[in-house]
Automatic annotation (TrEMBL):
It comes from the Eukaryota. InterPro entries: MoaC, MoaC_bact/euk, MoaC_sf, MoCo_biosynth_MoaA/MoaC, Mopterin_CF_biosynth-C_dom. It is an enzyme of class 4 (lyase). Pfam families: MoaC. The keyword Aminoacyl-tRNA synthetase does not apply. Its EC number is 4.6.1.17. Keywords: Lyase, Molybdenum cofactor biosynthesis. It catalyses: (8S)-3',8-cyclo-7,8-dihydroguanosine 5'-triphosphate = cyclic pyranopterin phosphate + diphosphate. SUPFAM superfamilies: Molybdenum cofactor biosynthesis protein C, MoaC (SSF55040). GO terms for biological process: Mo-molybdopterin cofactor biosynthetic process. GO terms for molecular function: cyclic pyranopterin monophosphate synthase activity; GTP 3',8'-cyclase activity. The keyword Lyase applies. This is cyclic pyranopterin monophosphate synthase.
Length: 145
């Protein structure tokens, strides 16, 4: 584990994204909130928030950071049959929260997969990446393709 004792605490923010590709039937059911398992998007959001808080338990040598805010939200694109999860994590600390943001959107996407797999296994999770981060030595913003 990297020693961060001598680093000055600063405001840290990280934003990540993940895309879940579904079929037309599933995306229609999700958009209408008619999935047999209930509100799969709300459950996925909650799973993402919970996962951000558990990141140091999942990733070896990841610092345990006191999170001040975790948000997970989604966009449904029925035409493309995708759900895009975005997550933002904040803290005031000596190390960043990139892994927490990435974990949040990844687990949100995996939860959606789990809740939809009874209808189809032809579900793909793609484009998991860090969109931006601020605080610490460097700031970062992904180039939009």
């Amino acid at each position: 584990m990297v020693n961060v004792l001598d680093k000055t605490p600063t405001r840290r923010v990280a934003v990540a994204t993940a895309t879940v590709h579904l079929n037309e039937k599933i995306i229609r059911l999700i958009a209408a909130n008619e999935m047999a398992k209930g509100d799969v998007l709300a459950v996925s959001q909650l799973a993402g928030i919970m996962a951000a808080k558990k990141t140091p338990d999942l990733i070896p040598l990841c610092h345990n950071v006191t999170l001040t805010n975790v948000k997970v939200w989604y966009t449904i694109d029925e035409e493309k049959a995708v759900v895009i999860f975005n997550g933002e994590v904040q803290c005031v600390g000596q190390t960043g929260v990139e892994m927490e943001a990435l974990t949040a959107v990844t687990i949100a996407a995996l939860t959606l997969y789990d809740m939809c797999k009874a209808l189809s296994h032809d579900i793909k999770i793609t484009n998991i990446f860090l969109k931006e981060k601020s605080g610490g030595k460097t700031n970062f913003s992904a180039v939009q393709l």
